[in-house]
Amino acid sequence: MQRYLDQIILNDLANKVVVLTGPRQVGKTTLSQQIMSRFKHPQYLNWDILGDRSILQKQSWSSQSDLLVMDEIHKMPHWKKWLKGVIVGLQNNQALLVTGSARMDTLRQSGESLAGRYFSLRLHPISVRELVEKEGMTAKLALEQLMVRGGFPEPCLASEPIHADRWRAQYFTDLIREDVLEFSRLQEINTMRLFVEVLRERVGSPLSLASIARDLAVSPMTLKNYLEVLKALFIVFTIPPYHKNIARAILKSPKVYFFDTGLVKGSPGVKLENAVATMLLKKIEFLRDSQGSDVGLHYVRTKDGAEVDFALSHAGELTHLIEVKRSDCKPHNALIRFASQFPQAQAIQLVLNLKQEESLPDIEILDAAKWLACLEA
Questions:
Q1: In whole angstroms, what is the distance from residue 374 CA to residue 377 CA?
Q2: pLDDT tens column, 143-177
Q3: CA 92 to chain centre
Q4: Domains of the chain
Q5: Would you call 286 exposed, middle or buried from its count of C-beta atoms within 10 A (0-12, 13-18, 19+)?
């Protein structure tokens, strides 16, 4: 399956080093192989492979390679300093694609800056748009499949549901046992696993680390550190509240969502909200990475309980207010309230099971799947 970043990466490689990050098994290696097929003499080197690691350490890769793909080098000690030297020493005919399953900007590294030397791109799970365009699915079927299986290529495209279930069980075990262990001490793993299990049941709700800390008998600061690890490894992401010009103090707690909707525990409505969250995040990060757009993803909730699921912004100003429903086509009261407060923002109620779309004076009731199929990525 050709992914949405394919041509952008090729274009960027002609100008600068490209750093491609994203969750484990989201398709970075497959995409890299597709990119490699466009070059005459590509070379792939993975830090996790012992023989490749030796070549990387000695910088003894082939001088004839017109594309170097370096995977997981963020695991190398002082990788930024090392990579900076590699970039300076690249031959004119060599392109460099660096990939990794962690957010390289958040890993604790000292000193060296790569500012201005690379283009950064983030590969996200498969979206409704990709399934419609690449697999020929209807938008409704695509969204329903993503709600159940998530957007990671292997479970999403598996021929049988049982294959997706087996993949996810192993994926979750590997995340905790291998990736998280690189950031944490061995004795913390059980607490981290419990924390993730709690988060799986609290998707879409304002996150109270103090409350969870009491339940797990750890400090809120410990959980804050754990959350940063989970975010750095693309396991979860958080959406902050929008606060500019909101009357009555806004709650400051973020909401948490999983990159893999299949990990979410909860009602179909919660899974739908998580799926929409992943695609909205994909949209704004695609616009940031490929166009440099100053866009943001938020939610709106006041202390009196009025809430809209999502809000999109550009240069700090709201552009969209988005409420997500499975079947309820009655206009959401909070959406009506905030639509009048922010008339410049397009107010949308996305409904999964909708018979007829409708345009009302302040808001639009739209088919969720069809709207998601029209996003930028």
A1: 8
A2: 999 999 999 999 999 988 899 989 988 887 777 77
A3: 33
A4: 6-122 (3.40.50.300), 128-373 (no CATH)
A5: buried
